[in-house]
Amino acid sequence: VQLQASGGGLVQAGGSLRLSCAAVGRVFSGLNLGWFRQAPGKEREFVAGISFAGGLTYYTDSVKGRFTISRDNAAKSVYLQMTSLKPEDTAVYSCAADPSRKTGASWIRSSIGYDYWGQGTQVTVSS
Description:
This protein has about 130 residues and is mainly beta. It contains one helix and eleven strands, in the order E-E-E-E-E-E-E-E-E-H-E-E. It has one helix at about 105-110; strands at about 1-5, 10, 15-25, 30-40, 45-50, 55-60, 65-70, 75-80, 90-100, 115, 120-125. The strands form two sheets. Strands 2, 4, 5, 6, 9, 10 and 11 form a seven-stranded mixed sheet that branches. A four-stranded antiparallel sheet has the order 1-3-8-7, with no helix packed on it. About 35% of the residues are buried.
């Protein structure tokens, strides 16, 4: 699976951005999908995930109520709608795909199962 992320940019605090990630390759509907981010000098962290079956969604606490992950299996795409952005959201955001078909919050929040990664898109939130 090849993943191509887009939609990053520079936005003021309180603004919104929508990230997109398009996939090329294997059956998309069987993939768990996630968004991760890495800020300068920090480790990569889980942001949001969506399961392959039923579209169950998971978020890290700091983005709950502000970010929404969604998927369009027909378009082979996953999206991250980000609102009320804060300077601490500044990071490189990467989409990832997990073909394991495992479910559960702990698994989807972990990066262990994500075998395929996009190149990342920069999100910068100014104060």
